Amino acid sequence: MYVCICRQITDSQIREVCREGTSRMADIRERLGVASECGKCGRHALSIVSEFKGSASSVDAVRA
To answer: In CATH, what class is 2-63?
Structure first.
């Protein structure tokens, strides 16, 4: 699904960047350009990043 219409960024692209180790919205913005035009997608993009952080924490807890 498209998250950022201005830059044609999808939720899959954001998740892929998160899987590669990026977990800060500023880094996502720099790398993909999400939320750098009109900014309307920023909240949704941040929720995807937060969702990924939460699942990564769960995986770490299971490994411990």
So the answer is: mainly alpha
